[in-house]
Amino acid sequence: MHYDFCTLFDKNYLFKGLALHESLRRHVSDFTLWILCMDDTAFGILERFDLPSVELLSLAQFEDQDLLAAKQTRTQVEYCWTCTPSLPLYLLEHEPGLEAISYLDADLFFTSDPAPVYEELGEGSIGIVGHRYGPKWESLAEDSGIYNVGFMVFRNDERARTCLTWWRDRCNEWCYHRVEDGKMGDQKYLDDWPERFEGVVVLQHKGAGLAPWNFDRYSIRKKSGEILVDGEPLIFSHLHSLEIVGDGKDFVLAYPEYGVSSANEKLLYPAYTKALRRAIDKTRAMEPGYSHGIGEVSPHAQRERLRIQRRARLRRLLGSIPPLRWGWRIAKRVLRPTAAPAMPEGNLKDSWKDPDVARQQKALIEEELRDPTEVAPFKAFLDIVDYVLLSGDIRASRFLDIGCGVGHYSELLHRFHPGRFDYTGCDYSPAMIETARSLWSHSEFVVDDVFEPRLDYLNFDIIMASALVDVIEDFWTVLDVLFANTSNLLLLHRQRLTDEASYSVTASGYVGQNTYATYLNLSELEMRLDRFGLRIRKDFPVTDDIHSFLIERTRPLAATPVGKD
In whole angstroms, what is the distance from residue 266 CA to residue 488 CA? Predict the structure, then answer.
């Protein structure tokens, strides 16, 4: 049987696309892989490779007016998603001899012949695969959808073309990397396809669509050289989130929270990473120094990944031995750390209002602003702003800095992104606000208390709390106010973390000032965020034990925000 596949990727996914092609050549005897190159760099390299069984499409050939219009409002990732339904539809229209076309994500990797999947499709017109989340990740369906776009089959018939046309129109209208009105990217549109369209088959083969989010759902083992998933041959894996680092010499999971077991890691990843290394060597033989798609991992981030992986492995080990399982559960209850007892605030909170504290902060800031890129919190902040701007997540530019102190972040925005943001700083210390107004005439500053806010936080596109939660004893109350009143993005900047339960202790601040130091447990923070329809989009390390979190809304706001009547 001849198979027709299609995929799309840019220069950053070139290595993974090459690994996908290699896996098809090893396990599929007769196929054509149509590749839509999302930039000229990828097209130029692939054209020179002249890969067997490959047909290339350039954007100049592929794009029409509808796609070009949508492209103006999308990030690169969002535009790739937008193009996904248009690619198989384009091929069915321009290659009428195709019996069917199968869309593949570029990070799929085949390990056996896909014939059983097509046999299962039978007389159906559209084949889709569920995420099949493991028990730990079932909640992801609410945002990421029931079905995974990574592998889809479309016959060259009216039912499939009707579905593709509808999907293309929806993605041209709206395809963004956020959850909004029941949509997220190109993927949530699939949720009702079995009811919406005729001829949809939800493929059940357990060897089709194995991925880190469902590894724990199955028994995965190797027998006679073949990898089996609950006894069925593994056909392809969706090796999502594997990052190439260390100048192409190493690989890490971008989301170590998946907790991939060492046994599954040894079974599923070596063949893929070897294929990636061959792709890197092949590309660099033609283009020396090619490094698109290769990232860097800071020593702290690497240690954090290892810590999470070791903890997950220990938990699985203890949970797998019956005599230890119950002892482990009891020990967790007995030994679970509790928050430090409440401390009377006294003058600690009011110490921030002391004019001398404002003078000390002003002197420190003026020194640090001489070379802000050498100051860790400033550098992290600028990296975050660059990330947000590049991802295209700002629908407007209204920026609220809660607990702004003497307003130094307004100067960073003004200096590095002049005219891009409409900045407002607020602080409950009149001395801080008075100092800020005297320093930065280009921004607005308001006296306001986060415990009794007068400002309407919902009017802002980005809210930042920089070391605010970190110095407040009643930190959960403040976080609840922030979470309930975030309309789009929240930047929790400069926050200490702990492996224990979250707690607050007294600490020294500026000369003559006492304050608090708050330590947040990341798991507790994530659970609290989920309760408010939020999640951490990206973690930015500032120093070894201090992080910044860019938080995004995934579900609509509650009817009555916390802190508002």
Answer: 40
Long-range contact pairs involving 384-387 (C-beta distance under 8 Å, separation at least 24): 384/491, 384/493, 384/538, 384/540, 384/548, 384/550, 385/413, 385/416, 385/417, 387/538, 387/540, 387/550
pLDDT at 298: 43
Lookup: tokens for 555: 């579900």
Q: Is the pLDDT of residue 322 over 80?
A: no
Q: Which long-range contacts (CB under 8 A, 24 or more apart) does 388-392 make?
A: 388/462, 388/489, 388/550, 389/417, 389/420, 390/75, 391/75, 391/77, 391/177, 392/73, 392/74, 392/75, 392/78
Please spell the DSSP secondary structure of 511-531, one letter per residue: TT-EEEEEEEEHHHHHHHHHH
Q: Within a 10 A sphere around the Cβ of 498, how many other Cβ atoms?
A: 15
Output the CA–CA distances (angstroms, integers) from residue 373 to 245, 277, 370, in the order listed: 24, 35, 9
* CA pair distance 236, 229, nearest whole angstrom: 11
What are the two backbone dihedrals, phi and then psi, of residue 325, each rounded to the nearest 5 degrees?
-60, -50
Question: pLDDT tens for residues 508-540?
Answer: 777 777 788 888 989 889 989 988 899 999 999
Q: Cα(537)–Cα(334) distance, rounded to whole angstroms?
A: 33
What backbone phi and psi angles, to 5 degrees, belong to 225?
A: 80, 0
The domain 3-290 is placed in CATH, from the list 3.30.70.260, 3.20.20.70, 3.90.550.10, 3.40.1640.10, at 3.90.550.10
Enter the tokens of residue 210: 């194995």
Query: In CATH, which of 3.40.50.150, 1.20.1250.20, 2.30.29.30, 1.10.3720.10 is domain 350-553?
Result: 3.40.50.150
